[in-house]
Each structure stands twice: as structure tokens, then as C-alpha cells.
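User: Predict the structure for this protein chain, please.
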Amino acid sequence: MAMKTNRRNLLVGAAGLAAGAAGANWLRRASPKPANVVLIVTDDQGYNDLGCYFDANPTPGGARPHTPHLDRLAKTGVRFSDYCVTSSVCTPSRASLLTGCYPPRVGFGATAFPGTQVGVLTPTSDSGLHPDEETLADLFRRAGYATGCVGKWHLGHRPAFLPTRQGFDGFYGIPYSNNQRPLPLMRDEEIIRRLPEEPLLTRPFTQAAVTFITRHQERPFFLYLAHSAPHTPWRVPEGRRDKSRSLYADVIREIDWSVGQLLETLERLGLREDTLIVFGSDNGPWVHAGLDSGSAWPYRGGKAQTWEGGFRTPLLASWPTILPSGAVHHQPVASIDLLPTLAQIMGLDLPNKPIDGAACWNTFAADAPNPREGLAYYARGRLEAVRIGRWKLVFKNTQRAPAISGGLFNLQADPAERTDVSAQHPERVTQLRRYAERTRTELGDALTGVTGLSCRPLGYAAAAV
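Assistant: Here is the predicted structure, written as C-alpha cells:
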């Protein structure tokens, strides 16, 4: 059972924050108003797709992304070099982000449908994140926050699964990916209009986010801005196309413009020092030979793959006077850690159901070790890899095309996962196999036919209210 925390317990346990100056800064914070949180998530943005992360790619192209506003966010906060999501595709990754759970725990696993395994929800799906799951928005709303969801949802488009049934006061956006049809633009639970084949969404989503902040400037708020960019199809407004760069680079520049608009709004309203901004991506980039698309360099692979390029993404966190400025932290952090960490520092009650993430504010504040033991890499209910520290064990997998032979990889020395060192480190293989067995028992594994003991059901429209 997940341990509960509240603001009093947080302050009484202040010694636990002593590892970082940020903890002390938080306790000395003068504002009587609870802090705001803005969580920005992009779609299919690679590790190497921000200027502040950019490392020269040896493949053709490889121009530094033009992201001055995101680079400024990094200079006023923390850049994480080792942030991983829990799935390399949209729906299960977003389920983890908002619940603090691995995908199979909240229904996105091998037994979600008879004879099938859940990947990405589609416009014909009758399922979604179960309404009984407690999301970040539920936690913030219970604490008196205004909660808003803007952008791409992709956790179920039937009424029972929409953001307004998952803790958000309001929703403006699309229910699934911008390449799925028919694509409706929605406000709350109503369809405003059908969108064209290549919709321009970054700017209207940004305007809706700015409006939400402005309307709620007098009370604490939690804003979840989930851009549909840079997911295909790629398009930018007239006058924003730079022919000297790729179209993908222009899409990234539009995301950066959006972040600049939010920063300007918070500064103009006098809210910047009272607002924690977190920026990340839902999974690695869509990579395709011959196209100038996203980059996960120096990591191998991209979206929908188990290699690190599909799971490792950017993560920035900025909170002036609370978090250090211009810091680069290297301790592992995962998307499942965001819910318990935000609950820890904002004084929110955790969900009553078990979660998988760890409260790791000290990791955010001072790059202290994360208390979570390791990380599981799931795809459609298959446990395809596990990791502890720098060591990642990838399992043999003939269900992939091409098939994966598996192996042990030292991510610090070999980020591209090219050299299997299992023969040289049998003790690490044993350690990781034991961790994998515990994970399979708890959450299941379609790769080996194990049914998890602690998986909760997915929501179904026919049974939902």
C-alpha cells in the first residue's frame, strides 16, 4: 500500500530534504499561497532535440535545435541527463506519467483484452484509463488547486475516460494523436469541430494554456499542457518555415515559442517564482531512414523500440530560488517518479492504491540517489528489459522484427547498446534477472507468459458510468 503524505508530515520530515539546498529554500519560502505546477509534455521529442541537450550527431544533418526559451528554462533550473519514461509509445507512457504506475499495473498489459495486448488507443477503442485510478490532477484538485488539461489526451476518448472524469476541471484539446482520424477538437466533453488532415495545434494549445493561467492567477493551479507536436504530420504556420532547416526543426522551434509564451505570461503576472515548471517528452523520437526527423543521439533506437532511444527523453525542471540554476543532474529519474515527488514537495495525499514511482525530491534538488531500485521496460505487456544503475539487461525477443538477441549493456560506457558484456559481468546478470522475476510476479510479462498478481483493470466504456 502506498504511504500517504501531507504538508504537515512533509515539514516534520524536513530533515529528509537536507541533502539539497532546494529543500531548505522551499521551507523558507515566504509566499502563503501554495506553489503552482506547469507540466509540459511533448509527443515523440528525442533526447537530442533541444539546444541545451544537443550533441553533434555523426549522421548527415544534425544542426543544433533552435530552442532559446527551453535553453533559458535549463539555465534557470535543472537539466536531467538520465530521465526515462515507462513505454516508448504514447498511451501507456501517459498513463504512467499521470498515475505513477507502470502500464500493466493500470491495465495496459497482457491481459487487458482477451488474446490481445494494449499498445496505443485508437478512435475505435472502447477502453481507457479506469476512472477509479487516481491521477496527478485528482491529487491537486483534492488539495484545492484549479486543474486544467490542454492538448493531447490519448487515455480514452469515450466520455467516461476524458480528462474531466480524471481530475481535471477543464479540457481543451484532442482525445488522441493528431494523425488519427476522425480528429475532433474538444472543450471539456463536447466536440467543437472536426480538424483537417494536418492541423496546426501548437498555437491554439498555447493560447488555451495562457488563458488558463490568467484566469486562475489568484489561486494555486496545476496545468498539464500536452502538445501533440512533434508527432507527425509536421506542419508550421505560414511565415514560420525556415527553408535552411528541416521541417522537423521548425516544429521544434514552435514548441520552444510556446514555452516562451508561458514564461512571459508567468513573469507578467508575477507568478514565475511561485511556479514549478517541468518539461519532458512522452517517448523517444520517430526515426526513419532517409528523413530528417528527431534524434535520440547518443542513444540507440527511437519510438516504439526497447533501446534507450525510445525511453530516454529530455527533462527540465525550473523553480527560481528553490531549485538550483544551470545544474545538470545525472541520477536516474523516471516518469513514474513525478507523481510521488510532486506530492512530496506540494504536500499532497498520495493515491490509496499502490504505485511504482519513488518520491525523489532530493534527486531533483541535489542529484541525490533515487530510492527506486531499478526500472522496468514494458511494451504491450512484455517485459523486454530491466535496468539497475548503469546496467541494462535486454531479454531475447523473437516477437520483435528484427528479433532481439538480448544482452547486458553498460549504459555509461556504451549508450548505443552495441556491446553485450554479460559474459564479463555474470553477477550483474544474476542481479537483474532477480529484479525481473520480482517485477514479473507483480506486474506480469507477456513475453514469458506470466500473469501479474497486482494488475488493475483497464476501463471499458460499456461498464463505465
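The first helix runs from residue 7 to 12.
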